TrEMBL record:
Residue intervals passing through the bilayer: none
Residue span, ACT domain: 3-92
Protein name: ACT domain-containing protein
Short name of one Pfam family: ACT_8
SUPFAM superfamilies the record matches: ACT-like (SSF55021)
Length: 138
C-alpha cells in the first residue's frame, strides 16, 4: 500500500490547504495521521490515487513523498491489535509508526504501519494469517 507524506507549516489552515487541494483533484482520503515539530508537521495520508495526489500537491507547492506502508486488516475485537504487535515483536520487527482507518464500507478496520523492514513484516504477518490490504482493496 502507498502513503503520501506532506510537509506542512504549523500555522492555522495548513492542513485544510492540503485537504482542499486533494478535494479539488477529486482524490479521496482514506486515512490520515499527523506528526508535528515546532516549525512544521508531517501529514501522512492513505488516498485512493497516491501518484496523482503527489503530482497535484507538488504542482501546488507542497513537498510530498510517496512511500510503501503495510495495511493489515484487523477485526474490531478486543486484543487483535495487541496480537498483531506481538507477532511483529516476536519477528524482531521494529515499528516506526502506526495509525488506523475504519471507513471501509462494512469491512474490517485497517492498521497502517511502517517498519524497519516492510518486506519481513509483510511475510511475518501473512504467515500468521493476518490479511494484508493493498491500494486496490481500499
Amino acid at each position: 500500500m502507498k502513503q503520501i507524506s506532506v510537509f506542512v507549516e504549523n500555522q492555522p489552515g495548513s492542513l485544510m490547504r492540503v485537504t482542499n487541494a486533494l478535494t479539488e483533484a477529486k482524490i479521496n482520503i482514506r486515512a490520515v495521521s499527523s506528526f508535528d515539530a515546532p516549525e512544521f508537521g508531517i501529514l501522512r495520508l492513505v488516498v485512493d490515487q497516491p501518484v496523482q495526489a503527489k503530482d497535484y500537491l507538488t504542482s501546488k507547492g507542497f513537498v510530498v513523498r510517496v512511500q510503501d506502508v503495510i495495511g493489515a486488516e484487523l477485526k474490531d475485537e478486543k486484543g487483535n491489535l495487541n496480537q498483531m504487535l506481538k507477532i511483529l515483536a516476536d519477528g524482531e520487527i521494529s515499528i516506526g509508526y502506526i495509525y488506523s482507518f475504519v471507513i471501509r464500507e462494512n469491512r474490517a478496520p485497517v492498521m497502517v504501519l511502517h517498519s524497519d523492514d516492510n518486506e519481513k513484516a509483510r511475510a511475518v504477518l501473512k504467515e500468521a494469517g493476518i490479511t494484508l490490504v493493498d491500494d486496490e482493496e481500499l
